[in-house]
């Protein structure tokens, strides 16, 4: 059995999978397979028996529509049963339309939205580079390999993350650009005339250009990429869409649809495959594909033995366990807040970063060029910038790159060993949203710090004042959106976010807020998502629900209406946590026996019906903001005690 025969057999499996599903993308998979096959059989570092081996190379299929390529390779490696390939794109299969790390063994990250795999790969490479510096290159010498396509190259996150990767000189990152020049709608010549070689040379990458079907050229390029120690590498492979099919080679129609039946039959004949068999995978093809598995197992054994030997050194073992041992986030030391001095919750978050970074060395992250505003400067001063000159640094200087920042953070989390945070203004969560959504699908532990969480940021005006953003983020499944009311809630929720195996957004004030009039032990209830801060009595007849800076407003309003109503005030810092609580706890807090219910939040009111019902009053903002000092806007938008009291009385008493 020879390489080309094995490749042809894998091509047949890809075509059969797409044909059986009558859905999928065969063309790009066939143009990428020469590179992928040689990489997987001859160069990729992995454990044939454990897809999670820590010392493995990472492989990312950024061109996620080529998923049948990855599934065929995973089957050849022994990680996917053929039955799963026959269930391509079917309900509850391990072979979904685009690769999903939570479903398929051997898939490093969920891709599909083009460009995000490229951006996440920068996070993988960054994490590996940092861990190599702190724990040893003998354990983290792996590369991160990516197959990307023309669509990836056209998406902004690809180029923005490539710019950062070049600046950081992430030499353990290799992108293979399968430039087959065809997209769903036709040739890429209709939309681009870029000279990618010059673009990436300008980014500081090692640029190699090859015939993507020439096996000798592929091997030479991979070896050059493996030996490169100073720069990330991009291998531009000029290929033919649907390479090897009977009559439709190079045609864009093969990009996103199964081959016509007659074309499929003729293609199998051309490839030397039995036309009367589907999912043909002879034993000799398996043996040839796995011919280097003995060597791979030997490498894993050597790596594992060396790690065991090193761990006999107590100091090294303790260092290793700080990154890969059992965590006890709950033991992070509490901060001694000065309750006599109101503090913006963004400042509280900054103090927590400063306080905890020394005891939690796996905490890494940074800001999208807003360090003074996001209060990450103290963290930077403590841990130093991660840079081409300082791989030990943990402050990530993302620049004005919100979308890549969020995607890179996903990659850092998926690599394992580190907990990333990413900081910007709440209004710019719009730029990061696609990566936040993909992080939620992947259940990554990324902390998104969003400051300037309302119109109270003031003079920057409506372009910078978030209105719909809290509700927009709450609409994303499996994402925890937190808006703490004071430094204590900020501390408690940040600690809880660190313990979640899911992404979270912590939305913080620019303006100072007073401390809640509660003991710390009472505020610990914030981890339940909503809790009573005033009025435990079940006989209350008015309930005020509030988040963030509006919790203090609710408490002041409660004092003013206490002669007309028996009032309960509920802080609701995280809807998602609250709706995970028992039905009994939810009933206790919501107390629907009282129909007089008010929500207070400096943002869109849509969604608060879940708390106040159809008859309740929702105080919020359903229009854009304005440029003015925060105090003027507070009065203009009706977020004073007098205004809210008036609305309550007019609504419930008139």
Tell me about this structure:
The structure is a single chain. The protein is of the alpha/beta class and 654 residues long. The protein has 27 helices and 18 strands. It has 3 domains: 293 residues, Rossmann fold (3-Layer(aba) Sandwich), CATH 3.40.50; 179 residues, 3-Layer(aba) Sandwich (Rossmann fold); 127 residues, Rossmann fold (3-Layer(aba) Sandwich). Helices cover 43% and strands 12% of the residues. Helix 1 runs antiparallel to helix 10 and helix 5 crosses helix 17. The N and C termini lie far apart (87 Å). The mean pLDDT is 97.
Comma- or semicolon-separated keywords:
Rossmann fold; 43% helix; six-stranded parallel β-sheet; five-stranded parallel β-sheet; alpha/beta; 654 residues; 27 helices; elongated; 3 domains
Strand line-up of the largest beta sheet: 9-8-10-11-13-12
Report the CATH architecture of the largest domain. Answer: 3-Layer(aba) Sandwich
Number of strands: 18
The percent of residues in helical segments reads 40-55%
CATH topology of the largest domain: Rossmann fold
| Largest sheet: number of strands, sense, barrel closure | 6 strands, parallel
Share in β-strands: 5-15%
Number of helices: 27
List the uncertain runs.
Answer: none
The end-to-end span amounts to 87 Å
The CATH class name of the largest domain reads: Alpha Beta
| Average pLDDT metric | 97
List the helices and strands and how they pair.
Blueprint lengths: L2 H19 L4 H18 L14 E4 L5 H11 L4 H4 L30 H20 L8 E5 L1 H5 L1 H13 L4 E7 L2 E2 L2 E2 L8 H8 L2 E6 L3 H13 L5 E6 L22 H11 L11 H7 L3 H18 L3 H11 L20 H12 L6 E5 L3 H4 L2 H7 L11 E3 L4 H14 L3 E7 L3 H14 L4 E5 L17 H6 L5 E3 L4 H13 L4 E4 L12 H4 L7 E4 L7 E5 L3 H11 L6 E5 L3 H4 L4 H8 L6 E4 L8 H4 L4 E3 L10 H7 L4 H12 L2
Parallel strand pairs: 1-2, 2-3, 3-7, 6-7, 8-9, 8-10, 10-11, 11-13, 12-13, 15-16, 15-17, 17-18
Antiparallel strand pairs: 4-5, 14-16
């Amino acid at each position: 059995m020879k390489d080309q025969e094995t490749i042809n057999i894998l091509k047949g499996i890809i075509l059969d999978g797409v044909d059986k599903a009558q859905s999928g993308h065969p063309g790009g998979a066939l143009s990428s397979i020469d590179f992928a096959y040689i990489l997987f059989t001859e160069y990729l570092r992995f454990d044939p028996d454990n897809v999670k081996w820590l010392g493995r190379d990472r492989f990312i299929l950024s061109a996620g529509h080529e998923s049948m390529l990855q599934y065929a390779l995973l089957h050849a490696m022994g990680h996917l049963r053929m039955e799963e390939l026959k269930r391509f794109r079917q309900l509850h299969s391990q072979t979904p339309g685009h690769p999903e790390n939570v479903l398929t063994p051997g898939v490093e990250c969920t891709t599909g939205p083009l460009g995000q795999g490229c951006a996440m790969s920068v996070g993988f490479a960054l994490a590996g580079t940092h861990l190599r510096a702190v724990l040893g290159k003998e354990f983290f010498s792996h590369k991160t390999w990516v197959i990307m396509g023309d669509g990836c190259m056209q998406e902004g996150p690809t180029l923005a993350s490539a710019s950062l990767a070049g600046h950081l000189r992430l030499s353990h990152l290799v992108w293979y650009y399968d430039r087959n020049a065809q997209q769903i709608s036709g040739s890429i010549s209709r939309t681009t005339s870029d000279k990618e070689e010059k673009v990436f040379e300008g980014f500081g990458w090692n640029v190699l250009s090859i015939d993507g079907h020439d096996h000798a050229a592929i091997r030479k390029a991979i070896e050059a990429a493996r030996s490169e120690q100073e720069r990330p590498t991009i291998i531009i492979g000029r290929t033919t869409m649907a390479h090897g099919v009977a009559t439709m080679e190079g045609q864009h129609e093969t990009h996103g649809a199964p081959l016509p039946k007659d074309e499929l039959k003729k293609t199998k004949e051309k490839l030397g495959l039995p036309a009367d068999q589907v999912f043909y995978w002879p034993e000799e093809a398996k043996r040839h594909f796995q011919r280097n598995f003995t060597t791979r197992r030997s490498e894993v054994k050597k790596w594992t033995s060396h790690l065991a030997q090193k761990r006999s050194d107590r100091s090294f073992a303790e260092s290793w366990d700080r990154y890969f041992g059992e965590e006890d986030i709950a033991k992070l030391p509490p901060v001694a807040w000065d309750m006599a001095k109101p503090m913006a919750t963004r400042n509280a978050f900054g103090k927590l970063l400063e306080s905890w970074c020394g005891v939690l060395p796996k905490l890494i992250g940074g800001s999208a060029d807003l360090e003074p505003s996001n209060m990450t400067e103290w963290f930077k001063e403590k841990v130093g910038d991660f840079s081409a000159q300082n791989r030990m640094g943990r402050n990530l200087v993302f620049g004005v790159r919100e979308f890549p920042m969020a995607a890179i953070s996903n990659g850092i989390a998926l690599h394992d060993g580190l907990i990333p945070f990413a900081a910007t203004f709440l209004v710019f969560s719009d730029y990061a949203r696609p990566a936040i959504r993909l992080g939620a699908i992947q259940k990554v532990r990324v902390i998104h710090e969003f400051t300037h969480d309302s119109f109270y940021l003031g003079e920057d005006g409506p372009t910078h004042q978030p209105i719909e953003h809290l509700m927009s983020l709450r609409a994303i499944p499996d994402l925890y959106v937190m808006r703490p009311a004071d430094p204590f809630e900020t501390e408690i929720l940040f600690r809880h976010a660190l313990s979640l195996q899911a992404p979270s957004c912590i939305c913080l004030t620019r303006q100072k807020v007073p401390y809640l009039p509660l003991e710390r032990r009472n505020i610990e209830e914030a981890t339940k998502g909503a809790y009573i801060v005033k009025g435990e009595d079940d006989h209350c007849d008015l309930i005020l629900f509030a988040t963030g800076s509006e919790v203090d407003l609710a408490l002041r309003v409660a004092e003013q209406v206490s002669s007309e109503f028996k009032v309960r005030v509920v802080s609701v810092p995280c809807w998602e946590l609250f709706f995970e609580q028992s039905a009994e706890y939810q009933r206790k807090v919501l107390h629907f026996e009282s129909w007089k219910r008010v929500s207070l939040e400096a943002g869109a009111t849509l969604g608060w019906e879940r708390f106040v019902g159809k008859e309740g009053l929702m105080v919020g903002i359903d229009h854009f903001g304005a440029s003015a000092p925060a105090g003027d806007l507070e009065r203009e938008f009706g977020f004073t005690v007098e205004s809210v009291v008036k609305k309550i009385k007019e609504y419930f008493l008139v």
